Amino acid sequence: RKSMGISRDHWHKRRATGGKRAPIRMKRKFELARPAAMTKLGAQRIHTVRVRGGNKKYRALRLDGGNFAWGSESVARKTRIIDIVYNACNNELVRTKTLVKNAIVVIDATPFRQYYESHYALPLGHKKGQKLTEAEEATINKKRSKKTLKKYADRQKEG
Fold first, then answer.
1. 3-class SS at 42?
2. 3-state DSSP call for residue 127?
3. Which long-range CB contacts under 8 A does 150-153 form with residues at least 24 apart?
4. Is the CA virtual torsion 120, 124, 127, 133 positive or negative?
5. How many whole angstroms from its chain centre is CA 124?
6. Which pLDDT tens digits describe the chain residue by residue (159 residues)?
7. 59-70 as b/e: b if 16+ CB within 10 A
8. pTM for this structure?
9. What's the rounded Cα separation, in Å, for the pair 129 and 13?
């Protein structure tokens, strides 16, 4: 006999030989599972779930940001998610803007651009030959010591 509900038991699976397993008991509380959150893109909405041992889990129903890494630069920043553009497993998840692992998203690049400009002292995201604004010009060409100038020159060679 089985009672209704999502379960994490292994009694419903067949043996490695292909034979059927006879369930030895009904479903238990410790085998319970819960439905997927199906997190959508939108203003943050997080529900708490009471779990085993009286602990809490946080179920994200809607999210609008996250922590993203720029692998080649070894830097991670918190930034805004703008859109979901591709999902290898299901186009429906793209249409409904559902956030899951392996979903390809568009993010706001501002924190990464700010990091790059401060780390390398070079402008990023400008067309070649385009004039910088006075504020950008001031931050990039500000007065620095010889040691600092050498440090930035070395970084610019590497990057």
1. coil
2. coil
3. 152/120, 152/121
4. negative
5. 23
6. 566 789 999 998 999 999 999 989 999 999 999 999 999 999 999 999 999 999 999 999 999 999 999 999 999 999 999 999 999 999 999 999 999 999 999 999 999 999 998 898 888 888 888 888 888 888 888 888 999 889 989 988 887
7. eeeebeeeebee
8. 0.80
9. 65
